[in-house]
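Second attempt. The first submission of 30S ribosomal protein THX had a stray character pasted in from the spreadsheet, which I only caught after the job came back as garbage. Lesson logged: always re-copy from the clean sequence file. Corrected sequence (38 aa) follows.
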Amino acid sequence: MGKGDMKSKRGKINRGTYGASRPHKNQNIASKKEKANN
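This time the job returned cleanly.
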């Protein structure tokens, strides 16, 4: 569980990627549906 581990939050921060362990800050189901409908 270090910087090279892509399944950990620290690894995602190190690479600058997002996923299950590091979701985007204000991303929820309601806002996703609104964006899909527009």
